[in-house]
Structures are given as C-alpha cells and as structure tokens.
Amino acid sequence: MKYYYFLLLYLFCMGCQKPGRQSSSLLTNKFNDTTLQTIYTAQDERQTSVLLPYLTHADASYRQEAAQAFASVQDSQAITSLTPLLTDPESTVRRAAAYALGQTGKASVEEILQAAIEKETVAAVNAELLEALGKCATQKGLETLVKYDFPDPIVQAGQAWGIYRAHSRPLQFKTALPKIISLLSSPSPETRLAASHFLARTTKLDITPHTEAVLTAVQIDPSPEVRMAAALALSKSKATHLPEEVAGIMETEPDYRVRLNSLRALTNQVWILVKPIVWRALTDKNINVALTAADLIAGKSTPEEAPELLQKAEQTLRWRVRASLLATAMKQHPDKKQVLSSIQERYQQTNNFYEKAALLSAAAKDIAGASFVEQETFAAQIPVVRTYGIEALTQLRSEKNFPSNQKKHFANLFQRTISSGDIAAVGITAGILRQPELNFKADFTNTSFLKTALDKLVLPRDNEAYQEVAKTVAYFEGKPEPAAPKNPFSHPIDWNLVKSIPANQKVAIQTNRGEVILQLFVEQAPGTVANFVLLARNGFFNDKNFHRVVPNFVIQGGDPRGDGWGGRDYAIRSEFANLRYREGFVGMASAGKDTESCQWFITHSPTPHLDGRYTIFAKVVKGLEVLPLLEVGDKIIEVRMQ
C-alpha cells in the first residue's frame, strides 16, 4: 500500500511542474529542455535575431538565459533590448542583464547602469551592476564608483570589483587609490581580494604613501589570495625598507604564492640590498619560487657575478632553474665559450626535450651560441625543440647590439623558416619581420614567400600563425594592419552528447605528479564541455605534456604538438558564463574569441584579468596540492570520465 501512496505523491509533484519543463532532479542536466537548447544554439551561432524574442519571454528562466547568452555574443545591437531587463521583476534576470551589458565594454551603457544602481534593492544585483559599470566606465563613471559608500559586504565587494575592472581602461586613478586602500581593510574577504588585485595590476600606480597599509595586508590578512596580490602590489612602492620586510616574509610565509609575489616586489629595489634574499630563494622548496628568483637574477645581476651564476647553475638539480641561470651567465660571462660548453654538455646529456628547448634559449643569449642553436634547431625532429630554437634566434636578432655582418645570414635564415611550412616557425618568424627598427624591408625586395606561406595556412586550425603572417604581409605592402579573421562556424554543439553528461560530471586527470579531479560545468559551457568530453573519451589528451607553466598563474596542456601551437581542424565558440577564475579553475586557451580547440589551462590562484575573456568550463575539486608540483614537460598520463 505504501508504494501506492508514493506513486500518488510522485504524480502530484510531476503535476506541479511548469508545462514543458521537467524537475531538474529527474534530469541529467538542464538541456533536456529543448527551449534551452535553442537559446544556447543561438548563442553558439551568434544569432542575435533568434535570441532577442526570448528577452521578453513569459518564463523568467528563459529571459535570464537569453540575457546571459549575450555575454558571449557581445552584440552592441542588443543593448536596447537588454536595458529594460534591468527593471525585470526577477532579480536573476536583472543580474544576467547587468553582466551582459558589462561584457559589451561600451561607454554608452554607463548612464544606464548608474540609473539602475540607484534603484536596485537586491545586493547581488547591485554588486553585478557596479562591476559592470567598471567594465564600461569613462572617467566620470569611475568617479561615481569611487564616491559610493556601501555598508552591505556583497554590494561593497561589487564596488571594489567595479573599480578593479576599470583599471584596464585609459583612466586616471588618483581618487580611486585612496578608496581602494580603505577597502583593503574591509571585513569582507571578497572586497579585500578585489582591492588587492587593483593595486597589483593597475599600471603607473605609486603606492609609496600607502606602503604600510599594503604591507599590513601582506603580513596579517587571513586570506593567502589577498596576501599574494598585495605582495605583488609592493613592487609599486619606492619605500627603502621593503627589502628588510620581504626578507621577513620569505622566512615566515607558508604559502609559496605569497613568497613568490614578494620576490617580484623587489624588482625595482637596489640589487645589492635584495641579492641575499634572491640567492636564498633559489633553493626554496617550491620550484615556482626558485624560478621566480632565477628570473629576478636575470634582470638584476651584474657581469661581475657571472662566474658565481655559472657555479650556481652547475649545483642545482632543477633543470628549469639551471637553464635560466645558464642563460643569464651566457649573456654576462666574459668567457662565452665556457658557458656555451656547459650548455652543450647538458644538451647532449638530457633526454628531456623541454630541457633541450630551454638550453637552446640559453645559448641564444649571445651571438656566440647562434651557430649551435641554428644547427640543433633545424636538425630537431621534435616540434618543441624546433619552436624554442626559432624563438631563440628571433630574440637574438632583436638585440640592439646584433652584429651587422650577421644580418644578411639571419634574413636568409628567416626566409627559410617561413618557407618551411611549420606553423610555429611561420608564426614566430613572421612577427619579427615587421619590427620597423630591424628594417627587414631592405632585405626582402620580393615577399612572395610570405604570401605563399599565408596561402598554405588553414583556418581555423592555424589562426594564430595566419594573423601573424597577414599582419606582416600588410606591413611590407604599406597597408593598415588587418583585423583578425573570424573563424567560420563549423562545429555545432552535439546536444545528444551534452544531454548525456551529468550536471556534476567528474573527470580524473592522472599525471606523473598525482591525480587531479575536475568537475565539469556542462550547464554553463555545454559546447566546451562536450568538446572536452569527446576528446577525453577518444584518448586525445593521454600521453600529452603540460607544455606551459607560468609560476603562480597557470599550467597548460592539451596541445598535440607540445609547444603551444597545436590544435584541431576546427574551432569552438567562446562561452562566457558569469564565473570567476579562482584557484583550480579550468579554462580554454585561445588566440582570441571563438578560436578555442583543444588546449586548456588550470589556474594557480585568482586571475580576474581572465574573467569574461576565456571560457571557464571546470574546476578542481580534488588534488589542488598537485598543481604547484607540475612542471613544464610533465605528463598527462590519462584523462578519464568518472
């Protein structure tokens, strides 16, 4: 009898559902709803005309989804239709409209957003409006943002993020700086995070008068994410006691990201005062901190220290640190043959192709290594070695003291490289040929080889190289730089595959450093997730390398070439849901909007400058401790669905 009552209860609950919509608890994900498929297909195909009617749909959830879609479409023609949604009865719709309007980046929506802020009563929506205002702000809009005083922590955080978003616009921040300093001591960790990132990422700031406030944040803020951003902001201070303070932070700070950014804060300090701190950091237990120290040494050390650099390089067991120190020694050491000999010996001993590539970069720090680099580059069968070698040669040619008797040889070398047809070699070399100060126009009276190379490139696969060559052709012809080509829509979303993916689908990435578990965001980025799942099920990512690791930024993989220039024969569309890059979030690498393919990255820490610009499609739910262990060349052993 009890089963009979359960059946009645089930039928009653089903009867309470809206027509055409099913209970989400009974679905794999929300895309069993065909209307949502239509909305997301229109987003994917950038069909404004299909989306606009849904902005006035009777169902608020469809209005919300359609408004959200315009955050990816970014069609300014939709501004007029999105504006009325800022007074929609449903707060979720108002928030989606605010986000979409912010994504346009158009100053024309500034007054629209300001008017909505004055009337909005829901904290989350007001926060979204304030952040959107920052994305579109003129100087007047920024001053309005700064003048607000919100006691609600959610709204205050929105204000702080709004001011942060304005930092990338060509504005003056004289009045914003004191406001941000006051927000740096807010009880709200989200507000402090936004404030610290403004200080860290806004160019041409002088925070010297506020050094103590920022130092306090670095030393005692309970959030390591605030501490690390505030530490980076210290690079904008001229305070003479900073080296002493940083030395203390390096001794006591448990989070490697804070130590790393504290080192970066020493960039503008007197080298003799910071040298002991930096040398000690070379042996930090975290490889990313040691690499940062090596990079700092490259920019600060003197020729007198070159022998010591060479000695340090020979002593370290970390190949990336060693390669960096050898590069600095190659540039500064009076005995180039001695350093080159050490580089060549390491090159022959290692079986790590990424180490070989780094050693070619090191050898090219002086013309004495050019012959070795050229020989190994053109003999290399592995793309990553060849790519690094070409890049090293172009950087060598860019040096101000490059010998004139080598210029013709390098011009012939670069023409040979362009004609090779290798996508990375073509893209990298094309970039240097249009540097006006190098005057390659005098070397090439016939540039047909460039047009031939351009004709051989295939879109969308070769988009990045295509852009480089097209710009170079225009440069030689004296024409304006062409706009980036728009990838043709050729890879529609596989809705049958999407519907089969649970909303909480997990993926295991087995690496040689440990396992990382992701949760996919199929409901926020269905096209991207479907692409990733299909590639994973086909074993595409297995045995690939993490080809890029930027300390306290990202680790990147998924490239079939292993050098960052590889992709598939198709491109998928960018999907900009209202998500933020925090530690362990997974995004798609691209060469611009709608150029994504198979490369993806995982963030080491919050990276708000990527928000709304690179598709977020997953986050790490287990294995965060593995991320700082991963190095260039580490292996993606297997990617499997769970």
UniProtKB/TrEMBL annotation:
Protein's organism: Adhaeribacter radiodurans
GO terms of molecular function: peptidyl-prolyl cis-trans isomerase activity
InterPro entries in UniProt: ARM-like, ARM-type_fold, Cyclophilin-like_dom_sf, Cyclophilin-type_PPIase_dom, Cyclophilin_A-like, PBS_lyase_HEAT
Protein EC: 5.2.1.8
Key words of the record: Isomerase, Rotamase
Stretches assigned to the PPIase cyclophilin-type domain: 514-631
Name used for this protein in its record: peptidylprolyl isomerase
Keyword Isomerase in record: yes
EC supergroup of this enzyme: isomerase
PROSITE patterns: CSA_PPIASE_2 (PS50072)
